[in-house]
Amino acid sequence: MSVRPFSPSEAFGFPLPPGSDWGSAKPPPRSGRASVQSMWTAENETYETAPSSTPENPFEDPESDRGSNKTSIKGFEELEIISRPFAPTLTDELPVAKGEHVHVLKVYDDGWAMVEKIDQEPPSEKPLPRGLIPVDCFRALGEELPAFLATKRVSSYGAFRL
To answer: What Gene3D superfamilies does the record tag this protein with (predicted)?
Structure first.
């Protein structure tokens, strides 16, 4: 297999990189090739610059909680009591036991909730543990699942059965 080297007689030539005075001068004409000079007019071009503020994180969740604001989520109390235990299997999940108190930060349509475990002891300086738990942990024993989901307003949880 042979590769043909670039030859100066090619019909297309790559543009030269800008020089030190690239904003005020036009590119030099090239001999033997079509010139891009006729299409380039630096005098009439204007550029908008972005405002110089602190950059925003494009991956940040706009509905995320900033700190520990104790507003309640629709369908949930400010402090919920765990009715069913949960043992986590992933690192973002939180272990909970029956009778523990949690603050619901966000409820997802897939049946999971981001919660913050509330200590019953005097407040400390360390952050409260946060993680995901199934919404089913709030369902009382004997309570029917459809009725429970209707009161908590979780839309698609339980719609998919494997």
So the answer is: SH3 Domains
80-152 folds as: SH3 type barrels. (2.30.30)
Bridge partner residues of 104 (DSSP):
115
Nearest CA to 132 out of 74, 66, 97, 86 is that of 86
Q: Within 10 A of 133 (CB to CB), how many other CB atoms are there?
A: 23
pTM as predicted: 0.48
- Per-residue pLDDT reduced to its tens digit, 47-88: 555 555 556 666 666 555 444 445 556 667 778 889 999 999
Residue 158 falls in which region: left (phi positive, over 0), alpha (psi -120 to 50) or beta: left
Residues 82 and 99: beta-carbon distance below 8 Å = yes
Helix (H, G, I), strand (E, B) or coil at 31: coil
Sign of the alpha-carbon torsion through 118, 121, 122, 126: negative
Give the C-alpha separation, 150 to 75, whole Å. Answer: 9
In DSSP terms, 112 is beta-bridged to 134
Question: One-letter amino acid identity for 16?
Answer: L
**For residue 124, how many C-alpha atoms fall within 13 Å in the half-sphere facing its CB?**
8
